[in-house]
Each structure stands twice: as structure tokens, then as C-alpha cells.
Amino acid sequence: MSIEVRPASVFEDVRVLIGPKRPDATVCWCLSHRIPSKLNNQLHGPERGEYVAELCRKEPAPGVIAYDGDEPVGWAAIAPRSETSFARTTRIQHVDDLPVWSLWCIRVRPGHRGGGLSRVLIDGAVEFARTNGAPVVEAYPLDSGEAKVDLTMAYAGIRKNFERAGFVKVADTKSTLAGHPRVLMRLDLR
Hints:
Helices cover 25% and strands 27% of the residues. The chain has 190 residues and is an alpha+beta fold. It has a 7-stranded mixed β-sheet, with helices on both faces. Helix 1 packs across helix 3 (46-57).
């Protein structure tokens, strides 16, 4: 397996990883934490994909994609926290005023799971943030211990995967997902 992580600037590859099977379906498209909830609720069906296509045309890209050869096999959403709902939430507090980047979604395609791609995506997202001037990367993964996490809700990541990538827990949060608490973890890039 020769995996390369690149900025998510090719919309068709992003669509393969996070788009719906039906173009008219209203699914997340990894927008729930990226845009204000009012706008998120206004975008329906194809409008969501069109919004993401526009994000893919901008700098920096809306995240990173892991490729196995030419095949897109994984996605990680990362952006400056100030451009996400994490800038406004009270459930996940701010530790300080640093212009941190948030890494909030990791998705590995079926058939490619269990081979360490989550870690590759975390590392690739961190490098992407570093290249774009981030002093610190934050993540808000599930602290599930040894409990199994439903794959649908594992998008936030699992604490141990972030620990393996060098992140450290800096705070508990008031946020839960799939019945598991979420913790605030950071990797200092300075």
C-alpha cells in the first residue's frame, strides 16, 4: 500500500469520500461543523455538494485526502477553528486565544479500514495545517476507552489514535457523541 495525502482540491474525489449515493440526498458533506447552523439547515440536496465544490476551489482546501495510487480512500476535515462552529460552541471550550486549526472528521472508505489509514490522515492533516501556518492543531475525539464505537459516529476520531500521533489531552469537554465523552486534544506545531 503506497498512500499519499494531498489537499482536498479535487471535488470529484471529495464526492467519492463524503458525498451521498443520490445527488438529491441531504447529508452532512462534512459541513455540519464547517458552516453556521442556519446556513447548514438552508442547504439541501445538490446545494450541499455545490457548496463543497466551491470550497475545493479555494485556498486552503477544505481538508486532505489519502490516495492509494489514484484511488481516494480517506478524508480528513481540517480548517482554522475561527472558520468553524468550534469557534462559537460552548460545549468545547477554548483553551487560549491561539489561532488553532480544528481537525474534526476522519473518514476511511469501506474496504480500506483497519490498516492504519486514520493515523495517516491525522498526520497528513497536521502537515497540511503546518504548511498553512497553524501554530497548533486541535481535535475533539471520542474518549471511548476500550468500548466499541459505531462507525457512523467514529468520524470525530478516537482518543488513542490522536495520542499515537503525538496529541495530548488538554481538557475535558461538555460534548458527547454516540454516548461517549469527547476530549480536547492538541498538537503544538511551534
